[in-house]
Specification:
With about 130 residues, this protein is an alpha/beta fold. It has a single domain, classed as Thiamin diphosphate (ThDP)-binding fold, Pyr/PP domains (Rossmann fold). The protein is built from four helices and three strands. Strand 1, helix 2 and strand 2 form a beta-alpha-beta unit. The longest helix has 15 residues. The chain starts with a helix and ends in a 35-residue tail after the last helix.
Length: about 130
């Protein structure tokens, strides 16, 4: 079992321990270890939504309707920017903290569109 799989399992386990049992997944190759860990966790409920923007609004609606948080999982890079409209709207009425997969510092800002500093995108809204 690789390190990504181990860390992903720990992330999902900690989310569940903290009461986040609903995970909305927009799959991509870089998020595969998290998706596998979520699917294998016996107390996690997963929903696949292939459009990141739609997934984010679904998660916000779920949180508003149930009073319980939902986690979002997507691939790294520009995909996470599609969460932005829902994150801004949610920050007006809900606690929201979208985690993003880290990228190596030396590739951020390069020619690869998947190597954005997405984690900083949301900072002004929290």
């Amino acid at each position: 079992m690789g390190l990504n799989r181990i860390w992903s399992g720990l992330v999902i386990e900690e989310l569940v321990r903290c009461g986040v049992t609903t995970l909305c997944i927009s799959p991509g190759s870089r998020s595969t270890p998290l998706v596998i860990a979520a699917a294998e966790h016996t107390r996690a409920r997963t929903l696949v939504h292939t459009d990141e923007r739609g997934a984010a609004f679904w998660a916000m609606g779920y949180a508003k309707a149930t009073g319980r948080p939902a986690a979002l999982i997507c691939t790294s890079g520009t995909a996470v920017a599609n969460y932005f409209p829902a994150v801004i709207e949610a920050s007006q009425s809900l606690a929201a903290a979208p985690p993003t997969p880290p990228r190596r510092r030396e590739v951020v800002g390069g020619s690869d569109g998947k190597a954005t500093a997405a984690a900083w995108t949301y900072a002004p809204h929290f």
